[in-house]
Design brief:
140 residues; Nucleotidyltransferase, domain 5; 4 helices
Length: 140
C-alpha cells in the first residue's frame, strides 16, 4: 500500500499558498511541493492530494493522511450529498472549490483509497515534515 501525507498552507488566506505531499511507496520516500498566488488554505489542502494522486499508478491501494478535516470529511462524507444536490451545501449555497472537489473525486475513483485524519502539529513525524514543506512554499 502506498502511503501519502499531504498538507496545504496559505499566508494571508487568501494569499500566497503552498502545498506538499510525501509519497512512500515500497520504502521509497518522494516529496512533491509547489506554490500558488491568490489562493486559500483550503484550496492548497485540496491541491496536495490531487497532485500526489497524479504521481502514482492508477488502481493503486493508497492511504492518504491529512490534518484537514475539511478534506477528509468533504471527500468521504459531504461530497455524496453535494453531488446529489447539484453541488449545493445543506444550506443551499454553492460548494466552494467545486472544481478542486470534482478533480479530487474523479481521481479518487481510480484508486482504492483509505483516508486518515491526523492531528496537526503533534507527534506524527511525517505530518510535521509535510507541514513544514507546505509552509515553506507558502512563503515563496
Amino acid at each position: 500500500m502506498i502511503k501519502i501525507y499531504t498538507d496545504g498552507s496559505c499566508i494571508g488566506n487568501p494569499g500566497t499558498g503552498g502545498w506538499a505531499a510525501i509519497i512512500i511507496d515500497n520504502g521509497k520516500k518522494t516529496q512533491i511541493k509547489g506554490s500558488k498566488k491568490d489562493t486559500t488554505n483550503n484550496q492548497m489542502e485540496l491541491l496536495a492530494p490531487i497532485k500526489a494522486l497524479k504521481k502514482i499508478p492508477k488502481g493503486s491501494k493508497v492511504q492518504i493522511f491529512t490534518d484537514s478535516k475539511y478534506v477528509k470529511s468533504g471527500i468521504t462524507e459531504w461530497i455524496h450529498n453535494w453531488k446529489k444536490n447539484g453541488w449545493k451545501t445543506a444550506n443551499k449555497k454553492e460548494v466552494k472549490n467545486k472544481e478542486l472537489w470534482t478533480e479530487l473525486d474523479n481521481l479518487s475513483n481510480t484508486f482504492e483509497i483509505k483516508w486518515s485524519w491526523v492531528k496537526a502539529h503533534s507527534t506524527d513525524k511525517l505530518n510535521n515534515e509535510v507541514d513544514l514543506l507546505a509552509r515553506s512554499y507558502a512563503t515563496i
